[in-house]
Amino acid sequence: MLVLGIETTCDETAAAVIERAPDGSGRILSNIVRSQIEEHARFGGVVPEIAARAHVDLLDGIIASAMKEAGVGYRQLSAVAAAAGPGLIGGVIVGLTTAKAIAMVHDTPLVAVNHLEAHALTPRLTDGIDFPYCLFLASGGHTQIVAVTGVGQYVRLGTTVDDAIGEAFDKVAKMLSLPYPGGPEVERAAAGGDPTRFDFPRPMLGRPDANFSLSGLKTAVRTEASRLAELTPQDISDLCASFQAAVLESTADRLSVGLRLFRERFGAPRALVAAGGVAANQAIRGALQEVAAKAQTTLIIPPPALCTDNGAMIAWAGAERLALGLTDTMEAQPRARWLLDANATAPAGYGNSRAGY
Ligand code: KG4
Ligand code: ZN
């Protein structure tokens, strides 16, 4: 099975070709990602209209490169898959429409992939693991704990009631005048800081559900930063270290609860899998390792290039769906919001426009 995957839901324009063998194993033939960070950096965040325009400009060339690098012709494709949401709608329209055009011209099946499902299925491509497993997805737009029990079978065990973790890192960076994207900057600054100088709140600690909340913590950082007024480099490092320490403690607690809920409903998970840009944070990785060890499961973190948004994960999810006969028609709609778990209801306090799904 040869599948072309297209990803345009946020600020990465990406295309990839993967091969799926009959035994269910996968191989990446090409995986091209063009980050738009430079286009958005001077605005301190992703500007949806600029992203959509950039996807239009870049996508054709990136698809052509992905096909060329894979040495595959359009007629050989078993399917073309595109992320049909959730995400910034302008970009989603660009990717899905392009996939439809390719599918129509070459008479190839179309798979409209949920971007979150693609993150969820990635460890099956990278590590060949079996269901069920527990996914911790933490990026700029999502913070979720999900039980993955089969292709298309996802139960959300926890989500954020306000900001996503990556979003909180980005906002803290911005208030401390660190560049965008903030996550790596905050991690770097935190390395030289005192994590005990500021006693920030540990959101949701000890709660019986597995939900996250980041906005109160973010506000606490803002309050301290404005109280100090003139921030020295040491102040910035200490604020970052104290913020990161609070995120770590809260995340570890939320995940322990999530894994306990998993066990109660689905038995022992085969692994705890982390995905999303936040999983690049070394301190968070350390915390995840401890949580997994305590819960007597193994931690799997796909390589960074497959943790963050990419085309291979979309192609792989497309192949997994195609293998089950799950293809889509030309009526497939681009979706700004698309719950992975159709039965999930909004947690109390829900209301943030980006992170709640
Ligand atoms: O998965 P991703 O590349 O894109 C999406 O948001 O979909 O994740 C990007 C997010 C940003 O919010 C970024 O600040 C955060 O992941 N991030 C980090 C680190 N590297 C990236 N957060 C904390 N520590 C990091 N080292
Ligand atoms: Zn993503």
Q: What's the quick description here?
A:
The protein is 44% helix and 18% strand. The chain has eleven helices and ten strands.
Which labels suit this protein?
single chain, 357 residues, alpha/beta, Nucleotidyltransferase, domain 5, 5-stranded mixed β-sheet, 11 helices, 10 strands, binds zinc ion
* Helix fraction bin: 40-55%
**What are the secondary-structure elements, in order, as H or E?**
EEEHHEHEHEEEHHHHEHEHH
Shape: globular
Tell me which CATH architecture of the largest domain applies here. Answer: 2-Layer Sandwich
Q: First CA to last CA: what distance?
A: 31 Å
Structural class assignment: alpha/beta
Please count the helical segments.
Answer: 11
| Ligands and ions found | 5'-O-[(R)-(carboxyoxy)(hydroxy)phosphoryl]adenosine, zinc ion
Question: Which sequence of strands runs across the widest sheet?
Answer: 3-2-1-4-5
CATH superfamily of the largest domain: ATPase, nucleotide binding domain
Query: Can you give the mean pLDDT?
Result: 94
Largest sheet: 5 strands, mixed
**CATH level 1 name of the largest domain:** Alpha Beta
Oligomer: single chain
Instruction: State the total count of DSSP E strands.
Output: 10
What count of structural domains? 2
Low-confidence stretches: 351-357
CATH topology of the largest domain: Nucleotidyltransferase, domain 5
Strand content: 15-25%
What is the radius of gyration computed over CA atoms, rounded to a whole number of angstroms?
20 Å
